[in-house]
Amino acid sequence: MPRAHHVEIQLTPKKRRTQAARTAETRSRIIAAVTDLIAERGFARTTAQEISTRAGVTWGAVQHHFGGKDGILAAVLEASFNHFADRVSETPVAGVDLETRVSSFVDKAWEHYSSRHYRTTFEILLNVQGRDDESSTADPADVPRWQGRMYEAWNEVWISVFPDARPGRRREFFIQHYTLSVLSGLAATLMLQGDGAQLPSEELDLLKRTIVAELAPSSSKDNRFDKKVD
Amino acid sequence: MPRAHHVEIQLTPKKRRTQAARTAETRSRIIAAVTDLIAERGFARTTAQEISTRAGVTWGAVQHHFGGKDGILAAVLEASFNHFADRVSETPVAGVDLETRVSSFVDKAWEHYSSRHYRTTFEILLNVQGRDDESSTADPADVPRWQGRMYEAWNEVWISVFPDARPGRRREFFIQHYTLSVLSGLAATLMLQGDGAQLPSEELDLLKRTIVAELAPSSSKDNRFDKKVD
DNA sequence: ACATTTACATATTGCATGCAATGTAAAATG
DNA sequence: CATTTTACATTGCATGCAATATGTAAATGT
Question: The complex's ipTM?
Answer without folding.
Answer: 0.86
